[in-house]
Specification:
- By secondary structure, the protein is mainly alpha-helical.
- It is 76% helix and 0% strand.
- The protein has one domain.
- The protein contains seven helices and no strands.
- Helix 2 runs antiparallel to helix 3, helix 5 packs parallel to helix 7 and helix 6 packs antiparallel against helix 7.
Length: 86
Amino acid sequence: MKLRETALAQLRDQAALAEIAKSDSDEHLCWAAVHKLTNQTALAEAAQSDPSRIVRLSAVQKLANAAVVSDIAGSDKDPKVRRQAR
């Protein structure tokens, strides 16, 4: 396991996880950060605006806000993400 992946595995701080999910250039690290997120605001942001389909899919799976999920189901550019949101 790479150093950054090891560090992320130990991370619990929601603000730090949200920042990694939002701005890291490594798609795998972004996905892993979203996978650990519980902050619904950060999950909604990732689900609505992340360029990576796998990150958006992971965020949609964890979202509790039905209105945001419904919006994604109707508007995401990727059909797999739209289906996941239904």
